[in-house]
Write a structure and sequence with these properties.
Order of helices and strands: EHEEEEHEEE
CATH topology of the largest domain: 2,3-Dihydroxybiphenyl 1,2-Dioxygenase, domain 1
Number of helices: 2
Largest sheet: 4 strands, mixed
Number of strands: 8
Helix content: 10-25%
Number of domains: 2
Strand content: 35-45%
Structural class: alpha/beta
CATH class of the largest domain: Alpha Beta
Mean pLDDT: 91
Length: 138
């Protein structure tokens, strides 16, 4: 099995909603396991997400969970998810959908390096960058 590097997002009670939203935007299969399925410890809502994984047909993998009470969660801008490629039919609608209810920091538009690029913070506070590569001229 090859090694993989995948973003893992933490939420405060919004993991199921957020990961379902990302599945709706990016497509793919979402597997969700709750704390209740493994016998939630006292004080932990059994409906909280212990682990989830979204796997798309493009091979993208995004994981996430809810942070149980008592564990620290400090939302911030230290992690950004980058979607890159040359398929505008996939990346443009993904950017638009991720921006709904969020904040567009850089509109998805042509940049000085020749690609289309945009950046946003989605409604869950997650930072995204989308870079649509300009097809090479032969």
């Amino acid at each position: 099995m090859p090694s993989n590097l995948s973003p893992y997002l933490s939420f405060r009670g919004q993991a199921k909603e957020a990961m379902s939203f990302y599945r709706d935007v990016l497509g793919g299969t979402l597997d969700v396991t709750t704390f209740g399925e493994f016998g939630a410890p006292p004080g932990v809502d059994p409906e909280l997400v212990m682990h989830s994984q979204l796997t798309t047909s493009q091979g993208w993998i995004l994981m996430g969970s809810d942070v149980p009470p008592g564990m620290d969660l400090t939302p911030g801008s230290s992690v950004t998810i980058a979607l890159t490629g040359d398929d505008g039919d996939v990346l443009r609608p993904a950017f638009t959908a991720l921006a709904e209810g969020g904040t567009v920091e850089v509109p998805l538009e042509p940049q000085m390096w020749g690609d289309e690029y945009g950046a946003l913070v989605d409604r869950f506070g997650i930072h995204w960058m989308v870079n649509l590569a300009t097809p090479a001229v032969s």
